Amino acid sequence: MKNFTVPTRAEVSPANQAIFDNLQKGLGFVPNLYAYYAKNETALGDYLALQNRKSTLKAKEREVINLVVSQVNGCRYCQSAHTVLGKMNGFTDEQILEIRRGSASFDTNLDALAGFTKSVAENRGKATEESKNAFFEAGYTEANLIDVVMVVGDKIISNYIHNLTGFAIDFPVAPELEPTTV
């Protein structure tokens, strides 16, 4: 079995070293996911450009999408990173666990967003009519729909990278979800 490693600053190109320096300055560290992208000459810069693009969605809404998609895709790295970011955006531990399950009973709009996102991710873009209707009834627009899909795509990229490689999680590890009973 191949052992996937995260490169150090010295092991990446000068262009990626400059990005590492900016990440170090802004975040206080270079997350392993970002460092791993630097094994490719352009992937780190490309990914950060996608992740930091302007959006019709608020940061809190993007975190809902990140949490739901990371749960659907079973990415422990992204579940952990976005639990930290979710808390920074004002969600409680209990709310984060609920969001990861695909709902947000504490906020009608976020509940519609979480349900729609879960349907999009689970059904590979073929969301249920019910979830689409709830999304639009909550006041979201077609422009928002496009941005939801952009964030879903962003998160699928990072989920798949970690699911394929399994490098160390450098955030406090998010709790596993308890199985729900019907």
How would you portray this structure in words?
The chain is mainly alpha-helical. The chain has 2 domains: 9-51, no CATH class; 59-165, AhpD-like (Up-down Bundle). 62% of the residues lie in helices and 0% in strands. It is built from 9 helices and no strands. The chain has helices at 14-27, 32-37, 43-51, 59-72, 76-88, 93-101, 108-122, 129-137, 142-165. Helix 4 runs antiparallel to helix 5, helix 4 packs across helix 6 and helix 4 runs parallel beside helix 7 (108-122). It is globular. It starts with 13 loop residues before the first helix and ends in a 17-residue tail after the last helix.
Ordered list of secondary-structure elements with their pairings:
Elements: H1 14-27, H2 32-37, H3 43-51, H4 59-72, H5 76-88, H6 93-101, H7 108-122, H8 129-137, H9 142-165
Helix pairs in contact: 4-5, 4-6, 4-7, 4-9, 7-8
Give the overall average pLDDT.
96
Poorly predicted tracts of residues: none
Specify the biggest β-sheet.
none
Give the overall silhouette.
Answer: globular
Helix/strand/pairing category: mainly alpha
The SSE string, one letter per element, is HHHHHHHHH
Fraction of residues in β-strands: under 5%
What is the count of structural domains?
2
Number of strands: 0
Top CATH class of the largest domain? Mainly Alpha
CATH superfamily of the largest domain: AhpD-like
Helix content bin: 55-70%
Radius of gyration in whole Å, from Cα? 17 Å
Straight-line distance between termini? 38 Å
- Number of separate helices: 9
CATH architecture of the largest domain: Up-down Bundle
The name CATH uses for the topology of the largest domain is AhpD-like
